[in-house]
Write a structure and sequence with these properties.
Elements (H helix, E strand, L loop, with lengths): L3 H29 L3 H30 L3 H23 L7 H22 L3
Helix pairs in contact: 1-2, 1-4, 2-3, 3-4
Length: about 120
């Protein structure tokens, strides 16, 4: 029988991947300049929910599997990627040349969510 926490982790990780992908797409549309207000609100909402899910998954990981240096380093690296993307967007909001770096970070966040789903799949 499956542990309820592993099921919750899998569901949250799957929703996080969908939100990260949606946020990546809306972010690319913001760069293009189409429907900036609506896409900006969707992008911000997806980002806030995604960070919330990421934090919940990190806490569930420590509760379920205990604390280890490698695990903490992995979760902290994910937070570092998220906040680096936020910092680049905030600093270069008026300068459009930094958006290519943000798109690379957005793609790496999608890969990060794919890994989170992989580690949370019950086998």
């Amino acid at each position: 029988m499956q542990n309820i926490y592993s099921t919750i982790s899998t569901v949250l990780a799957s929703i996080g991947l969908v939100l990260a992908t949606s946020s990546f797409i809306s972010g690319m549309q913001i760069v293009r300049g189409t429907h900036v207000n609506i896409e900006g609100k969707i992008h911000r909402f997806n980002g806030i929910v995604t960070i919330t899910f990421y934090t919940i998954l990190a806490a569930l990981s420590f509760v379920n599997y205990g604390f280890s240096i490698l695990s903490a380093a992995g979760w902290l690296f994910g937070f570092f990627l998220i906040f680096m993307k936020l910092a680049i967007v905030m600093i270069s909001r008026k300068k459009r040349r930094a958006f290519k770096y943000v798109s690379w970070l957005g793609a790496s966040l999608i890969l990060m969510w794919l890994y989170i789903i992989f580690i949370n799949l019950p086998l």
